[in-house]
Amino acid sequence: MAGAALVFGHHAHCLRGLETLQGHWIAHGLGNFISPDHVAIRDGQRVFIPRLKENRVGAVLIIEPGGRGRVIVRDVRFVRTNGSGQAIVLRGRAADH
Known about the structure:
Radius of gyration: 16 Å
Oligomer: single chain
Largest sheet: 3 strands, mixed
Helix content: under 10%
Shape: globular
Order of helices and strands: EEEEEEEEH
Low-confidence stretches: none
Mean pLDDT: 75
Number of helices: 1
Number of strands: 8
Structural class: mainly beta
């Protein structure tokens, strides 16, 4: 973990664990909330694959510098998007599921 204050794993497209290792944060997967649209190659052609604007769910880490190359995780907020792609912070029971 030399040189990394925070490791963000993004490929799983689902919520995964959040932990510390030797004082450094590891976010194994924060879901699809911030995953961008992307381009894939199919049959030799570039194909644009948009992500859904509605009901994308994920987590957002609220972090700040902690000094000496570290970060402080202040909060984890679970969010989903509405039909316009705007973020809605989940609260109460909705955040528990």
